[in-house]
Amino acid sequence: MFFAIVQLVLELLVLYGKAFFMILEGIFRLIFPVSEKSVKDEVVLITGAGHGIGRELALQFAKKQAILVLWDINENEIQNVAEEVRKLGGVAHIYKCDVSDLHQVESIAARIQQEVGDVSILFNNAGVVNLKPFNELEPAEIQRTLSVNTLAHFWTLRQFLPRMIELGRGHVVAMSSVCGILGGPYTTDYSASKHAVIGLMKALEEELHFIGKGDIIHFTAICPTIVDTGFVHHPHTRFPEILPILHPKKVAREAVNAVLTNKRIAVVPSWLGYLIPIFRLFPDKVFIMFQRFLDQAANPNDSLRAKVH
Ligand SMILES: NC(=O)c1ccc[n+]([C@@H]2O[C@H](COP(=O)([O-])OP(=O)(O)OC[C@H]3O[C@@H](n4cnc5c(N)ncnc54)[C@H](O)[C@@H]3O)[C@@H](O)[C@H]2O)c1
Question: Do the beta carbons of residue 248 and residue 228 sit within 8 Å?
Fold first, then answer.
């Protein structure tokens, strides 16, 4: 009993020591950021690459000389993006794919393995939103949100993660949202779907750590506030100078940086990412008060893209 207590105390001391150094490292990294890894000639698959943030991600990864695999349900739009990538001197392979359809994901993943090779970065970006009061949401709309925004991540991961583990390298990125950390009005289905993918990233990382493969695959969740892509048509923000509606280029730049520096969670804008954990130290009520104070939100029935697709 005595030795067990001594052992526990020693282990706790080691744990506290490590935690202390991690905090110091975090502060050091604020001043001297981690150097970026190269994605030159790496195969980067981006879903929902035909428009908005996905399009910008494709262009920015192209500038880093990655080989792009672009998926979207809208074939014309990914064709246009592929043209833009080629104009930058990049390589893009396009595949029309509805990520919510398990069978399409399976058959297109098999084609990619043959036609392009191993995917080393999987960026699950495709997403939809309804922006409806909870009582007005139809079951089919809820199912669609969860299928595209959450289940699709499982379908693509089932195809590409085993090979990453086999090769001993890879990076999985989930496009979440601040709605994956906070809740907002008219986003019940959307918030649930975005919380879920953060949970998926965290649990997968722990599972790989548990089986001794913790350091080979990186997991990242991107959590932007509202972005000007038409996804939310007329958003409002109380302090546009402090918390503006973001440009997709900025979000893609921060997302690409998060991948290149192996960040776990990247909130965009990044200053909000530093504030959220600080407010988490206070009771929940304080956190919610802070969120309501900033007051950035969507209006009901206000998604252009929901009407397009
Ligand atoms: N715009 C925002 O305010 C905002 C904020 C936070 C997070 N996000 C997230 O960022 C991601 C991209 O959003 P965006 O603003 O660029 O939206 P967008 O509508 O401009 O682009 C989304 C793309 O995904 C494609 N897509 C939709 N359903 C698909 C499916 N089933 N299969 C394949 N492709 C499909 C669309 O055709 C479109 O090209 C989404 O996951 C969204 O939830 C957006």
Answer: yes
